[in-house]
Write a structure and sequence with these properties.
CATH class of the largest domain: Alpha Beta
Number of helices: 14
Strand order of the largest sheet: 3-2-4-5-6-7
Helix content: 25-40%
Low-confidence stretches: none
Largest sheet: 6 strands, parallel
Structural class: alpha/beta
Shape: globular
Number of strands: 21
Oligomer: single chain
CATH superfamily of the largest domain: Cobalamin-binding domain
């Protein structure tokens, strides 16, 4: 099977037309029109927004952090949890005044939430000030949709259900000069019973390996030091093609690129995390010794209801093997508290797994009903029970994280500097190979620089130390 591949150049006609409009604006007003974008949700959404920013810049717009002065206002949305959707609707309502004062401003919403049929329908009927709505699969048509929106003065909703294609060579306006997201695939085939993602992002589509390697090589030549490979499940890379490529092979090829840089990846699904992948992490020096491997529940009964397709025992065996070949491995994970029908015994199984593994970081979420998923029709449990369990698990994880981080006291770690903390710039911060936050007194190190820090204190959320030889 071969994925549909589209080049951004197919949109060149519309890019040129919009650039003509923005040039006329420049001649009339003495400045370029501006755009404002904001992202809700995951790293994949952050990466998508960087592409949207790149296209807007390519079409002649200038970025602004003040939406009050923007000519295009765009929000990239998330559909994973109800709270994120509530925030989006609050944002939509807050834009009414801006649209009333400046009718020519383009108000746009994109992302996973917009791909939900009931959401797009509600926006169409109730929120007339929203001009442009499109889903994740329509990002490659953004120049065309924006041009039509500007010139036809009609509302455009590009949210049709489609398999999705891969659009290459989109210009990217990256948020950092030394850290970069690189998508290796899009969509998801897992259909976990609680998750809306396969319904809004489509089926798995893997980018050609040569395109991924080409993008990473270009980033390294530009001086990028920390590159994160993205996918809803990177471990199934190229399972949707007839090639003999897999994610472990892709990692080895990237590791062999010349340069001083780090490779990260997320997210991994335990059912597809192989010993070959773990051996690759162990053997390749540029791959970070950090594994984010969501377990979601410690109960086999709940895992079955979630359609996760692995057991508690298989997960623990995988962790055991990973630690045997990567002694300095840093483990983080995701867990859902309060899944439908979760009993005290089920929850205690989750608690015991967290206690046994000793994760450095745990992203703990209270189950949120997503209409259209199988779990939405299952037996829901009381909100107060969810919150009580959530608090108990967080308390345990805070203890385990402090315990884990305390092992670094007296050791020297290599970090990539991120910048300064606070208003007085007396502290700087960075991250280890294992993605652990490190704070230290300012020493003049520049963001994107590798330095060594000797650790002298640890808390559950960060470790602290002093720069060496700076």
């Amino acid at each position: 099977m071969k994925n549909d591949l589209i080049l951004y150049s197919s949109q060149r006609e519309y890019c040129d037309k919009v650039r003509g409009i923005t040039y006329s604006y420049l001649l009339k007003n003495g400045k370029r029109p501006m755009y404002f974008t904001h992202t809700f949700g995951c790293q994949q959404n952050e990466s998508d927004t960087e592409k949207i920013n790149g296209m807007l810049s390519d079409m002649g717009y200038e970025k602004t952090e003040n939406r009050e002065e923007a000519d295009v206002i765009l929000y990239n949305t998330c559909a994973v949890r109800e709270h994120a959707e509530q925030r989006v609707f609050g944002t939509i309502g807050s834009l009414v005044g801006i649209k009333r004062e400046r009718p020519d401003v383009i108000v746009a919403f994109c992302g996973c939430m917009m791909q939900r049929e009931e959401i797009a329908s509600e926006l169409s009927k109730k929120y007339k000030h929203v001009d442009l709505v499109f889903g994740p699969q329509a990002i490659g048509r953004f120049p065309e949709n924006l041009y039509n929106c500007i010139t036809c003065h009609e509302r455009i909703f590009d949210v049709k259900k489609e398999k999705g294609s891969i659009v290459e060579d989109i210009p990217v306006q990256r948020a950092s000069s030394y850290k970069a997201w690189v998508s290796v695939m899009y969509g998801c085939n897992n259909f976990c019973s609680y998750c809306i993602v396969p319904y809004v992002r489509g089926r798995e589509r893997s980018r050609p390996p040569e395109k991924v390697i080409e993008e990473v090589s270009s980033l390294i030549s530009e001086g990028y030091k920390d590159i994160t490979l993205l996918g809803q499940n990177v471990n199934s890379y190229c399972n949707d093609t007839d090639s003999n490529w897999n994610f472990a092979k892709l990692l080895r090829m990237i590791n062999d690129i010349d340069g001083d840089f780090r490779i990260r990846f997320m997210t991994s699904h335990p059912k597809d995390a192989t010993k070959e992948l773990i051996d690759t992490v162990a053997e390749c020096p540029k791959i970070c010794k950090h594994l984010h491997l969501p377990f979601q529940s410690g109960s086999n009964r709940i895992l079955s209801l979630m359609n996760r397709r692995y057991t508690r025992e298989q997960y623990l065996d995988l962790i055991g093997y990973a630690r045997s070949v990567i002694p300095d491995l840093v483990l983080t994970s995701d867990v859902i508290v309060g899944f439908p029908s979760e009993t005290d015994d089920d929850f205690n199984e989750t608690v015991s797994l967290v206690d046994k593994v000793g994760f450095q970081g745990l992203y703990t979420f209270i189950y949120s009903v997503r209409s259209g998923t199988p779990a939405a029709s299952m037996l829901q449990i009381d909100e107060s029970v969810k919150h009580e369990r959530f608090d108990r698990l967080c308390a345990l994880q805070n203890f385990k994280a402090t315990q884990f981080n305390s092992n670094y006291i007296g050791k020297t770690v290599k970090i990539l500097v991120d910048g300064s903390m606070g208003n007085d710039n007396t502290l700087q911060t960075g991250r280890t190979d294992g993605n652990i936050i490190v704070n230290f007194p300012s020493c003049g190190a520049m963001p994107g620089e590798f330095i060594d820090i000797k650790i002298d204190m640890a808390l559950n959320w960060a470790i602290f130390g002093q720069a060496i030889n700076k």
